[in-house]
Design goal:
Blueprint: E1 6-11, H1 18-31, E2 35-38, H2 40-45, E3 63-68, H3 70-83, E4 87-91, H4 106-114, E5 121-131, E6 134-138, E7 141-146, E8 153-159, E9 162-169, E10 171-175, H5 183-186, E11 198-204, E12 214-217, E13 222-226, E14 233-237, E15 241-245, E16 250-263, H6 270-278
Parallel strand pairs: 1-2, 1-3, 3-4, 4-16
Antiparallel strand pairs: 5-6, 5-16, 7-10, 7-14, 8-9, 8-13, 10-11, 11-12, 13-16, 14-15
Length: 282
């Protein structure tokens, strides 16, 4: 990828050592003749002016580097997908499943990327969620869940125009393969390789033990209708955005027309990652 002229940098501001790592990263890019497009909080840490809002960084960049954890990555991933620019996550958090590049390997990975190693790019498709006329894109999941003091909620689930189930539960997770290792996994869903063309419907604490997670083709359109009224019910997108639902609200979920170009490590594959981060098969 020798066409990178502008590198956007997004940070988790209170992550340990973020300021020194940020300085090293900016020095690396400027040494290679690449201009740095800084998120406003990153610009302030360096005493520079001209920082942008996080949402505006991808459109002004040819590559985005995230210094932080998976939450920081999720906050910018949907913007980067729509802008069509690759994103590399450098892990300054705890788990770091999406931000998989350790600090010690960041510059080495950038060396390979700038040298044109296309094998580092892992395409990750997103979900498109339509609710109340608004369209949102999600890398991990769309979640409908009860509030902290609400009772169990009731939903109907439709697939490709046909009602297939009524769910009584604490909620429902609809996840991409990328998101299968996040909230869905904690709720009992399967691990799905990112290249599998499917998404997963995972109930949260269902009233019946027979309601198991279901994988459906990525060509499907899933419609979730909230039947419960008078309770606090939330729609959450990638654990970052969302709003409140009321009775008979419908969320239509399908594969998004945009995808994220995620920069992965040249030193480990997906199976190494699930073993390292999740202890899978150990």
């Amino acid at each position: 990828m020798n066409n990178i002229r502008r590198a956007g940098i997004v940070i988790k501001p209170h992550a340990p050592s973020v300021e020194s790592i940020l300085k090293d990263l900016v020095a690396y890019f400027e040494k290679h003749g690449i201009a740095c497009v800084l998120e406003d909080v990153a610009a302030r840490k360096l005493g520079r002016s001209g920082g942008l809002l996080r949402a505006d960084v991808p459109a002004a960049s040819d590559l985005v580097v995230v210094l932080g954890g998976d939450g920081t990555m999720l906050s910018v991933a949907h913007h980067a997908a729509r802008a069509g620019v690759p994103v590399m996550g450098v892990n300054l958090g705890r788990l770091g499943f999406l931000t998989e590049i350790p600090v010690s390997e960041a510059m080495l990975t950038l060396d390979d990327l700038l040298a044109g190693d296309a094998s580092l790019i892992s395409p990750r498709w997103l979900l498109e969620a339509r609710a109340a006329g608004a369209v949102s894109y999600c890398l991990n999941d769309v979640v409908v869940t009860k509030g902290a003091v609400a009772r169990m909620i009731e939903l109907t689930i439709g697939i490709d125009g046909k009602e297939v189930a009524t769910l009584k539960a604490d909620g429902l997770i609809v996840s991409t393969p990328t998101g299968s290792t996040a909230y869905s996994l904690s709720a009992g869903g399967p691990i799905i390789h990112p290249l599998v063309p499917a998404f997963v419907l995972t109930p949260i604490c269902p009233h019946t033990l027979s309601f198991r997670p279901l994988a459906v083709p990525s060509t499907s359109i899933v419609s979730v209708r909230l039947l419960t009224g008078g309770e606090e019910v939330h729609l959450t997108l990638d654990g970052q955005r969302g709003g409140v639902l009321v009775g008979n609200d419908v969320i239509d979920i399908r594969k998004s027309p945009v995808e994220l170009q995620l920069v992965t490590s040249p030193r480990r594959n997906y199976y190494d990652l699930v073993k390292e981060k999740l202890g899978w098969a150990e």
